[in-house]
Specification:
- Helix 1 packs parallel to helix 13, helix 1 packs antiparallel against helix 15 and helix 4 packs antiparallel against helix 7 (189-199).
- The chain is α/β, with parallel strands linked by helices and 464 residues long.
- 55% of the residues lie in helices and 11% in strands.
Length: 464
């Protein structure tokens, strides 16, 4: 175990070196983007000339800038990935599978801080756990009014089949929802929750600031659990929370460089799905998908299939999904061995295509046992990360390099087209044309330098 952790340290140091290379690539492409702007400005002067009656690449340059912006966004994601000082492990799964119990064992926290699903809990916000030897603390990030409507109210409307969505908090306050006999005819948990949020809006509206606040550990539960509806003054604080960052001392010293991300459930709305995909791409290095052999869930459900599809999309250019996603089969004391066998058989048949571990590695653990989690989960996970995380990083870097190479070739081709167009104008607008030629020459130099670096990167990848 200690050796595996030393490898994790080395991996983080290696990422720091890759970060510098990514930063250099971003600087070069920002320079190229500036040259495109300069060429567009020179072309604008030519377009205004009375003799310049030809189309001068206006839409082409706008499209090139869009492609450069997309490339820079991809590099920004890589830079954020390589800048992390820990390896982030996402934990996801439906209710009642022991996901929170597993996170409690990993983090050393208890039910008073991160409650399990024994009561009626809402879809939890994203929670990040980081190891610290200092004072433990919890920082709550609040929704803004806009994100509250999009992340909390709109999904409830969608689940209930309401076609319209409130566009503002004032509109939500004035919204007419079913009441009286209508409620009794339509009783559903989502409707009860929505009506409660609507009725108690005044109690939490001022918290929808989009800001952050440190919360004492003994008060943290109130931001995660559904309030007691029998108390008229209770405040549904959970609805105001966009995310929580918890710093505490992990019970396992050798995972001090791991961060644990408690992911929200896989939603049914397109906005919720896209939000989760963004989190998976931007904030985690690998995902633990939790299952449990309980009645009605000891097989791959529709929600599991949806989860695997979204995880596959979030993996993007990563070639082996089994590097990114691991299935955890939680086994509590008293769980049926027959149901566990049925669940393992279901996973073997789909999605592993009839062969154990073909596409997804499955680890079976008792999430409440520190020893079992250490030996059955953390030990093989650390080994897998040290072996496969560099490969995932290379997949992402190679995809970005390929995108950059394609864009470089496109820009070179447009420069040739532009060069052919210039002689047609030189008789009438010599000054502006010469300026454009100079801008083109500078851009060719910038691209040549960038392409040279790209070719070195590709040659290095081939040698690997």
């Amino acid at each position: 175990m200690p050796n595996a952790w030393q490898d994790i340290d080395a991996l983080i140091e290696r990422r720091a070196l890759q970060l510098r290379k990514v930063d250099q690539k971003m600087e070069r492409w920002l320079l190229i983007d500036g040259r495109i702007v300069a060429i567009d400005q020179a072309l604008a002067a030519l377009r205004n000339h009375p003799d310049a009656n030809v189309e001068l690449f206006g839409s082409v340059l706008r499209d090139l800038r869009k492609q450069v912006a997309e490339l820079l966004e991809g590099y920004s994601r890589l830079a954020a990935r390589f800048a992390r000082q820990s390896v982030a492990i996402g934990v996801s799964g439906p209710a009642r599978v022991g996901k929170t119990a597993l996170i409690q064992t990993l983090s050393g926290l208890e039910d008073e801080q991160i409650p399990t699903g024994r009561g009626w809990l809402v879809i939890a916000p994203r929670i990040r756990f980081d190891h610290t030897k200092g004072r433990p603390r919890a920082v709550v990030q609040f929704h803004s009014e806009e994100s509250f409507l999009k992340a909390v109210i709109d999904p409830l409307h969608s689940e209930l089949g309401f076609l319209a969505m409130p566009a503002s908090l004032n509109e939500f306050e004035a919204w007419r929802y079913p009441a009286g006999d209508e409620v009794r005819a339509l009783v559903r948990p989502a409707l009860v929750q929505l009506l409660d949020l609507h009725a108690r809006l005044a109690s939490y509206r001022d918290d929808l600031t989009g800001g952050e606040m440190e919360v004492p550990f003994e008060e943290l539960r109130a931001y995660l659990a559904y309030p007691d509806l029998s108390e008229p003054c209770s405040v549904p604080k959970y609805a105001t929370v966009r995310g929580i960052r918890i710093e505490c001392q992990f019970p396992y010293d050798y995972i001090s460089k791991l961060s644990i991300v408690d992911l929200p459930g896989f939603g049914s709305t397109s906005d919720a799905e896209q939000s989760l995909i963004d989190v998976l791409r931007d904030e985690v290095d690998a995902v633990l998908l939790v299952k449990r052999p309980v009645e009605g869930m000891a097989y791959l459900t529709h929600q599991d299939v949806l989860a695997l599809d979204l995880l596959s999309e979030a993996a993007g250019p990563i070639k082996r999904l089994t590097d990114f996603v691991y299935i955890i089969a939680n086994r509590f004391e008293g769980d049926s061995s027959d149901l566990m066998a049925a669940m393992e058989d279901s996973i073997r048949r789909y999605p592993n295509g009839g062969e154990d571990g073909r596409f997804f590695t499955v680890w079976q653990v008792n999430p409440c046992s520190t020893d079992d989690v250490s030996v059955g989960l953390l030990a093989p996970l650390l080994v897998a990360l040290t072996e496969r995380l560099p490969a995932m990083d290379r997949d992402l870097l190679d995809a970005a390099s390929a995108q950059a190479g394609g864009l470089t070739r496109t820009i070179r081709a447009e420069i040739v087209e532009l060069e052919h167009a210039l002689p047609r104008l030189s008789r009438h607008v010599t000054g502006q044309t010469e300026d454009l030629r100079e801008q083109k020459r500078r851009m060719e130099e910038d691209i040549s330098v960038g392409l040279g670096h790209l070719m070195l990167d590709l040659a290095s990848a081939i040698r690997r």
